Amino acid sequence: MKQGRIETITTRIISTTFIVVALAVFKPFGLDAWQWQVYVHLAAFWVIGFSICMLTDIILKYIAKMPRSFKKGVEYIIRRNLWFQFINTPLVALGICLYRHFVLSDRVEGNQFSVVNFLETLVIIAFCSFAIGLYWRFKYRSRYLAMELEETRQLNEQLKEMQSEKLSEKSLQQTPESSACQNQELTLTGTTNESVTLQISHLLYIEAVGNYVKVSHLRNDQVHIDMLRATMKQMEETLQGYPMIVRCHRAFLVNLGQVEQIISHSGSTQLLIKHCHESLPVSRSNMSQVRATINNHLSY
């Protein structure tokens, strides 16, 4: 049996046991009315919970095409764990709720199947799942941090390679449908009369500031800041033909050609910008776009 499979089964056994122990302590569903038989019912709950956990793994692997893997990166692991909880928690709640109806209802009338009972069971299982999830997050924290650091190191190597190969030739070119070059000047305009004219390669980043956007760019080797009354959506539409300029956060557009280093610290990622040495945050939802842009340029 592969090591990963053993680890998965061990994780499910510990998680299911934690939930059953919690049920044994608080005795919901009228379990305190069963005296010694309560241990038989708790054992049944364990079998139900473990079986559904393994079923959820099968659903993710063969239907959702999301096998358990530590080689696909931290982002993939987090996304898969969220899907696991989203699928597994209602299924476990349903299984226990049905057991309450068919096995426990003869002594406790309130165990009859109903929407209220299902929601009650769902809340209890969800709380237990959240608690055990915190435990696993703490347990694997060092592994996740090591993986994040390795991912960041590889991404920085790819970033440097992309900049060294593309900056002099194709960096900041528009898509094949257009014919702009990296030295082309572009005029960014706001909703009023103000405008900023700059070379695409000299753009550092654009930041949303209330009803304005802050355009940071180079002019005569000096960093200049211009304010335009515009929205980030307008700026994104204007610059959509330049693949090196991507959204890294809901409030930031960044020129990857002007990123000095990608920094990962305690689960957060930042982009250190050249010349001004400011750090821009990267949201988890936008990290995949940053990574894809770097990889796509390397594959040209």
Description of the molecule:
There is one protein chain. This protein is an alpha+beta fold and 300 residues long. The chain is 51% helix and 19% strand. The chain is built from 7 helices and 10 strands. It has helices spanning 3-26, 38-63, 74-104, 115-139, 141-166, 232-238, 284-298, and strands at 185-189, 195-199, 203-209, 212-219, 222-228, 245-249, 252-255, 259-265, 268-273, 279-282. The protein has a 5-stranded antiparallel β-sheet. A 3-stranded antiparallel β-sheet has the order 8-9-10. Strands 1-2 form a two-stranded antiparallel sheet. Strand 4 and strand 5 (222-228) form a beta hairpin. Helix 1 packs across helix 4 (115-139). The longest helix has 31 residues, at 74-104. It is elongated, with a radius of gyration of 27 Å. The chain starts with a helix and ends with a helix. The model is unreliable at 170-181 (pLDDT under 50).
Compute the gyration radius: what is it?
27 Å
**Strand-pairing-aware structural class:** alpha+beta
Query: What portion of residues belong to β-strands?
Result: 15-25%
Q: How much helix is in the residues?
A: 40-55%
**End-to-end span in angstroms?**
41 Å
Overall shape: elongated
Helical stretch count? 7
SSE pattern? HHHHHEEEEEHEEEEEH
SS elements, strand count: 10
> Roughly what is the average pLDDT, rounded to an integer?
85
Question: Biggest sheet: strands, sense, closure?
Answer: 5 strands, antiparallel
Which ranges are low-confidence, i.e. pLDDT below 50, for 5 or more consecutive residues?
170-181
Oligomer: single chain
Strand order of the largest sheet: 5-4-3-7-6
